[in-house]
Amino acid sequence: MSYAGDVTPEQAWVALRDEAGAVLVDVRTRAEWFYVGLPDLAEVGKQPLLIEWQTYPDGAVNERFTAQLEAAGVAKDAPVYFLCRSGVRSVSAATTATQHGWSRSHNILQGFEGPHDDSRHRTVAGWKVAGLPWVQG
């Protein structure tokens, strides 16, 4: 079962702004939230939901991921936008959420930081490069 689709960071921002029930789930690790930063949804009256897809520091897949989504009160019919660093872990999170009943699960392409440039810096694309609001963790 495939997830509902991919969206750009800008499309996710518009959905989060315009859809009252839309939820952003940041699936990066605690270390990434703290050291790299977080999407800032204050302008749209929301906060990102922080649920690791892979746990830090061991990198194991979080076996409680869908239970934590449910415990956080994310409605199964809500539009849910999954974000990671570059858009890879969030595909797995969106797919798993869909398999467990969240029918409107979306992957945010390019993630929070995006892919590497030629110098191996993350300056090409993603939430931060798009100029969307974020804060240091």
UniProtKB/TrEMBL annotation:
Superkingdom of this protein's organism: Bacteria
SUPFAM superfamilies (alphabetical): Rhodanese/Cell cycle control phosphatase
Rhodanese domain sequence ranges: 18-124
Protein name (record): Rhodanese-like domain-containing protein
Organism expressing this protein natively: Terrabacter terrae
